[in-house]
Amino acid sequence: MKKFGIERQTMAVALIPILILAALLETSFIVARIADLDQALKDRASLIARQLASSSEYAAFSGNRVLLQQQAEVTLAQQDVLAVFILDAEGKVLASASGVTDLTITPPDWRSGQTLREGKRTLAVYHAIVTTQLSLDDTEGVFSENKGASLGGVFLVLGKSRLNSEKVRMVAMNLILTALVLLLAVLVAMRVARRITLPIMGMRTAVRDLGEGRLSTRIGEMQVLELHELAQGINEMASQLQQERNQLKQRIEEATTALRSQKEQAEKANFDKTRFLAAASHDLRQPMHALGLFMGELQNRLDTPEQRKIVEKVEESVTAMSGLLDSLLDISKLDAGVIVPQVQEIKIATLLRRLSEAYEPSARAKSIKLRIHTCNWRVRSDPILLERILMNLLGNAIRYTQEHGCVLLACRKRGDRLRFEVRDNGPGIPVEEQENIFREFVQLENTARDRSKGLGLGLPIVQRSAKLLNHPLYLCSTPGRGSIFALDVPRVPELKDLLAQGSPVATKPSADSEGSLTDRRVLVVDDDELVRNGTAGLVEAWGCSVATAESLAEADRLFRQSPFELVICDFRLPDGTGVELAERIILQGKQQPAFILVSGDTSPEVLKLVADKGMHLLHKPVRPAKLRSMMVFALKAK
Asked: What is the dihedral of CA 237, 238, 243, 248, to 10 degrees?
């Protein structure tokens, strides 16, 4: 249904009654006026005919046709008269006069009693000539007999052209006057309508501005009382909304300030936590590092199985503590942003084979069926980080799956990506806890903090590593039915797979059991006597020639006396850092030794500094096998 505005509806309300009234009045006036004009013409025709009949009585009685002709011509000269006929008693024409040639006029049969005949263009009137004179004495008898007798008749024809023109002029004038009146009414109605619509349109604009947030908009004075009251109500509403918005804005600013303060406090707490972990791990790593070195040296000097068994138990405790510190170190590295992924092509078959060899024994120990579906595809990722992610996921799946359960690692193509899926039929994870498991030290099934079930740092490391590599991580789990962890990794096109035959290049140094360290000159620098002596004893057991120093100055002096092939230096020294020692050696311009930094500090600043310098860094406690592997790697890379 078509909708009309207030202005049109107001004009319609004002004009429709006027139009109806004007039409009725105009119609009645025109009809009455036309009837009056027609009647006036008829009365005039009758009067002329009566006058002619009266003046023609004597001439008709005496038969004076010349006089009758004169009277007919005189009558013809009157306005609107087209033809005049004077008839005798028998209906014969005694005299006639006509002013038109294209009009055929036939006198009516007066004997039938017809006295008026009207057409579209003419009006014909007949009037009888009757004797009306008084009788004389000498002729009294004759006239008395003929008194009131008909001597004939007069027939007049009048034209209606002037009457019709008058009617047209009258109708045109009335229509013009009516149009002027209606135009005036339209102008008045428009003015009245605009006095209503313009304020309403102004209020509409103001309401739209208020709806768009411009609450300072106000409506001016209104001439219409009701609209003025409405405008005042809108202004009051706008004022109240503006006041409430200002209050809300103030509350938002206060809340924002409070949130910013809380965020700063949380960031500070997180920073303090990182610093605390770094400091705590540093203080713990020093004795743990020395203990591990002495344990490595002790292993080479034990003879009886009982002694070796005791040392193995101690080494298990050292390994557990070292694992905790390593996990904390991984979290610190990821939070500090110092790990730069080394993305390269990885052959999945080789990676999955290593995972199968690593976790098959632990799965077999729990009677868990471990199935790893191999494939020949290649992906692009960091091999160390990707392997660490899959190791954590597999380790968790085996750890939390009951005996005689099943764990599956499979690869599936998903467009240009390869999806790794780790499935288990373990206890599953409730929906409300699926986000919490990625928080540090959260273990749903280990409220007793059983060390054999991990530390609760594996999944946080997985999530941070996946985010760093931009590999989407998904979780789907149903309590009582198991869990599925999925990781999407970019896949190398198959054509490239056919051309590439080599194995991925590992960035992490691997142990080289066949690497020889015999007769290698090594300088050990550490301010802790236990660590310095433990490291020196272990390295000497591997056949190296070892010198020790407890400060940067002493190490610099020893190096000036006799160059070394490898320097194992603590990061923090009483008079400087291991980085400063390396820079001093570089400035001497002599043959540069391989350089390994050892530190118990896991703070982001230290990690970033060493990463920027491109130096090798080991974190205390360092296992003997890892130290040997790094020594072999550094000497080969020199």
From this structure: 100
